[in-house]
Structure formats: structure tokens, C-alpha cells
Amino acid sequence: MADKITLKVFATPDLMSEAAGEFIVRIAAESIAARGKFTIALSGGNTPGKLFSLLASASFRERIDWKKIFVFWGDERCVPMDSERNNAHMAKTLLLDKIKIPTANIYPIPVNLGPAEAAKKYEETLNFFFGEELPSFDLILLGLGDNGHTASLFPYTSVLIETHHWIREVHVEEQKEWRITMTVPLINQAAHIAFLVSGIEKAKVLQTILNGPYDPDQYPAQLIKPAEGHLFWFADQAAATDLKTCE
Ligand code: 6PG
Fold first, then answer.
1. Which among 35, 64, 171, 183 is most buried, taking Cβ atoms within 10 Å?
2. Is 224 within a domain?
């Protein structure tokens, strides 16, 4: 198992984002060469913003065959689709509206519906897209909250033990907000999973997730263990401050 986990630490958030961009270019080219398409689930929050802007820049956007890229989200806040807090809105603003990707290739989570209906509808979308195949993304990007959550898999929520659905609605008490999230079984079916973690405020939780006791109810990111895929951690030096280096 250990050989399927890769930790890469970079001096700055910019260098981390650049490395993540190169990683996506590589994985996208390999997926398209092998299967004619690349399926990616984007993460939300602030961390991926630099990456999205980079992918839209002249040095990256021409290196990806966007018409063969299919974009989904790992989670979404139940806020209006045009809200600054909406993850798909952020990705569209920074990336998707700036590249030649067919609108039909972009699958935002339909939070204009109620939470349960949005989750059901998105799961139907995944089942239709993947057809008979098991929904297995080529790449799922994830962030890490300072409380150990990832996607919208928050501590001590019932969604952590969901095994029958790929997508579920979850009420996040601490944020007084409904969210829609990919579940652990779906995320762990991905061929590649990449966490992006940046900032000193993530140092303690990153050390706990990677080297602390296994306590997934409190630290849901510990549930992310690809069944057959490869897990990557991209961190900047600030977030890696507390990691014990192997002497
Ligand atoms: C969300 C995210 C969430 C995020 C982490 C880290 O919708 O909020 O999907 O899981 O990735 O909370 O967020 P930051 O990158 O803003 O620290």
C-alpha cells in the first residue's frame, strides 16, 4: 500500500500549484491516450484557485485536449450556482470560462435543487456518464480542512459510513449548511487521487492525517485510501512544517 502513496513538498504555493498543473497535464494525456477521455473531479475551497488560474494560462491551456476532458466536482455547497461560495462558480470563473472546453463536458452539482434531490440527480448523472462501468475517475482533486475533513466528508457525520451511494447530501452543523459530496467508496475507486494542502494552518492536521493515530471519524481524510489507484499529497513547505522527515 505504501508504494501507492506519494508525498511531494514544494517551497511555495505557486510551485505546488505548478507541479499539480504538470501532474494534471501528464495524467490527462495518459488517460486520453489509453481511453480517449480524461475524467476529473475538482475540489473546492481556496487552495485550488492558483492551480485553476495556471491551467487557464498560456503556458498550460494549450497543452490539454480540453474537448476530451470531462469535469465534475467532488463536493458542492448548497448555495446559489452564481454565489462566490459555489465551488463550480469559482472553477468556471478562474478556468472553465477561459478555455475551449465544450459546455456539455462540464457537470456541476445541481444545487438549484434541494439537497437530497441534488444528490440523487448527480448520482444519476454519474451512472449515466459511466454507463455499465464502475464510476472510476481518472483523477479526483481534494483539499484538506484544518479539522481533517475533505470534500464534504466532515467529522462525525453519517456520510462517512455511506456505502450504497456514490453521492450524498450532508448537513454540516458547524457551518449551518447543506452540502453535496462524493462518498468514500466513490473517491477510493479513482485511479489517481491528489490532495492539495497549503498554509501553516494545515500543518498540524496534515501531520495528524499522515502520521497520527487512525481516527477517521475525527479525521475523515484518513478514509481516503484508493482501492487500486495512487494517492498523491501535494503540500507546500508551510503545510509540511510538522511532518517528520525520514532521517
Ligand atoms: C469545500 C471543499 C473542502 C475544501 C477544504 C479546504 O467545498 O470547502 O471541497 O473540502 O477542499 O475545506 O479548503 P481551503 O482550500 O479553502 O483551505
1. 183
2. yes
